[in-house]
Write a structure and sequence with these properties.
8 helices; single chain; eight-stranded mixed β-sheet; Metallo-beta-lactamase, Chain A
């Protein structure tokens, strides 16, 4: 075989190997998006009233105002018994319908409490929350931000126009529980969630999107004790979330605000956020910052 023939054979062999390798790489690349998409999913599940579960891409569980056994949740007792994992419990203020089942869940799961310091102290001293799980490591106040769960979750404390007192379960005695707050929960590789807690609309909500672009706003609309549909629509206009989920309505007759009235107020106000009305046990899934269902 001549030198030129050997070179041609060698070139052809190398081309075949390069092409075969390219197919292998393309095959691997084709499998990566599906795996990444799956691992990057954040889920938000509603238990009724103001109780939500956030499941991060790595499977960490964050509970917000976990009154799982609220009247809107017909399977509340079963749902509470089924909660075997929780890493963080966030409580916006001391009222019973937001503290809810936090202590029972914490005792079973070891979940750390995220709240203002005075509320943490009250639920430990008078509500049975395990002291070792409610420390300064996860306490904060308005203007502060905590980096938690190895950096996968950040929690910023924002104002709420409401009240806060904690009634001891055994005798109903009222105890000081600090200021009410809302939470900005930023999930690494996932959405930023604004939980309003119980609040009225206030003009400084317009500052929130200057600090954090909000992907989903969990927005109280019930009225009487919080803003109703009209003011809630104005709040959404200030915050500019991509998605808004109405909450804290219909649990009691006095909470008369409805998603229909909220939807109408959003349209009248020219608000462009997409409203998703969740049923109890419904979940929203996000890949990165984008809602997928």
């Amino acid at each position: 075989m001549t030198m030129n023939a050997r070179k041609t054979s060698w070139d052809m062999l190398m081309r075949r190997r390069i092409i075969a390798g390219a197919f292998v790489v393309l095959g691997l690349a084709a499998s990566i998006p599906a795996a990444s998409a799956k691992s990057a999913t954040t889920q938000i599940t509603w238990y009724g009233h103001a109780a939500f579960k956030v499941t991060t891409p790595s499977g960490k569980v964050v509970l917000l105002d976990p009154w799982i056994t609220n009247p809107a949740n017909k399977t509340g007792k079963q749902d509470l018994a089924a909660i075997k994992k929780a890493d963080l419990i966030l409580i916006t203020h001391g009222h019973f319908d937001h503290v809810g089942d936090a202590a029972a869940i914490a005792k079973r799961t070891g979940a750390q409490l995220v709240a203002v310091e005075e509320l943490s102290e009250a639920v430990v001293q008078f509500g049975g929350y395990p002291k070792a799980q409610a420390t300064m490591a996860t306490a904060g106040n308005m203007g502060g931000e905590l980096t938690l769960l190895g950096g996968e979750v950040k929690v910023a404390f924002v104002p709420a126009v409401h009240s806060s007192g904690f009634a001891a379960p055994d005798n109903g005695e009222e105890h000081y529980a600090g200021n009410p707050v809302g939470f900005l929960v930023s999930v690494k590789g996932g959405p930023t969630i604004y939980d309003t807690g119980d609040t009225d609309m206030f003009s400084d909500m317009a500052l929130i999107p200057k600090v954090h672009k909000v992907d989903v706003m969990l927005c109280c609309i019930g009225g009487r004790f919080t803003m109703g549909p009209d003011l809630a629509a104005q709040a959404v206009k200030l915050v500019k979330p991509a998605v808004v989920v109405p909450m804290h309505y219909g649990t009691f007759p006095l909470l008369s605000g409805t998603p229909a009235a909220f939807s109408s107020a959003l349209k009248t106000g020219g608000v462009h956020s997409v409203m998703h009305v969740m049923r109890v046990h419904d979940s929203l899934s996000f890949i990165g910052h984008r809602l997928t269902r």
